Amino acid sequence: QVHLVESGGGLVQPGGSLRLSCAASGFIMDLYAMGWFRQAPGKEREGVSCIDVEGVPTDSDAVKGRFTIWRDNAESAVYLEMNNLNLEDTAVYYCASYLSASCTSANDFWGQGTQVTVSS
Description:
By secondary structure, this protein is an all-beta fold. A hairpin with a 4-residue loop joins strand 7 and strand 8.
């Protein structure tokens, strides 16, 4: 059974940093692209960052230059380092797996999400 469990969310001041972690189990993560999404109150879920099996990241324009995604296949984990956070980054962040090795494929499994709140 596939499980994706996020951790690392919390309350942070504008300009601060957080690192999110996603622990994957029940499948061979090495074979699939992995990504982070977020959903802010009253808004649709949006893609944040994705990393393919080659380790090549794709970031949304909203986070480019501030967020970094990486994967540790040995640990079956995906991480998202978030720097210079601003109020618009407040959202529930979700880890997701993709149907193939590429970030252009659809998503299949999702975690439960972790709350990130940026507030002064």
